[in-house]
Amino acid sequence: MKVRSITKNKGKPVIGLSPSDTLDKAVTLMMDHRIGSLVVTDSDGLLVGIISERDLLNILHQKHAMWSPITAADAMTPDPYTCDPDDTLEEVMNIMVEHNVRHLPVVYKGKLEGMLSITDIVEELLKKAKFENKLLKNYIQNWPDAEHE
């Protein structure tokens, strides 16, 4: 599958802003559209950068004095979606896609056991695909000749 087939079927425009827009606008756009990054384009529509959630956190860290009175309770999402250690990757991916989340706490019998990120899933799927490709290549290389059947 090519990237083109994924982006073609998304059906949503790319949300972005100009280099002179404020970070307040960036946060508002991210929250309104429930997205984790914005493209930054110049007046000709050319890509000049990207602002991600991590970029915003970095700025918050650098300018922490103005944010210090805010507590975790003020900013947290209460009762987050979670997964069970025995859930399949497909089940977990469905939860993440359905609820547009990138991190799931792993909870077993009410106890926190870990954290699963979308990156963890992608890495696991990539390892699986590489392993399957290796098996297929080995199988094809050892394919018996049709003449010897």
Instruction: Using the alpha-carbon principal axes, give the shape.
Output: flat
Estimate percent helicity: 40-55%
| Sheet of most strands | 3 strands, mixed
Strand content: 15-25%
Rg calc = 22 Å
SSE pattern, N- to C-terminal:
HEHEEHHHEEH
Mean pLDDT: 87
What's this entry about, in short?
The protein is of the alpha+beta class and 149 residues long.
Describe, in plain words, how this protein is organized in 3D.
The chain has helices at residues 3-10, 23-33, 53-62, 72-75, 89-99, 118-141; strands spanning 16-17, 37-41, 47-52, 103-108, 111-117. It has 149 residues and is of the alpha+beta class. The longest helix is centred in the last third of the chain and has 24 residues, at 118-141. It is flat and about 70 Å long. The mean pLDDT is 87.
Task: Furnish the topology, listing elements before pairings.
Elements: H1 3-10, E1 16-17, H2 23-33, E2 37-41, E3 47-52, H3 53-62, H4 72-75, H5 89-99, E4 103-108, E5 111-117, H6 118-141
Parallel strand pairs: 1-2
Antiparallel strand pairs: 2-3, 4-5
Features:
46% helix, alpha+beta, three-stranded mixed β-sheet, 149 residues, 6 helices, two-stranded antiparallel ribbon, 5 strands
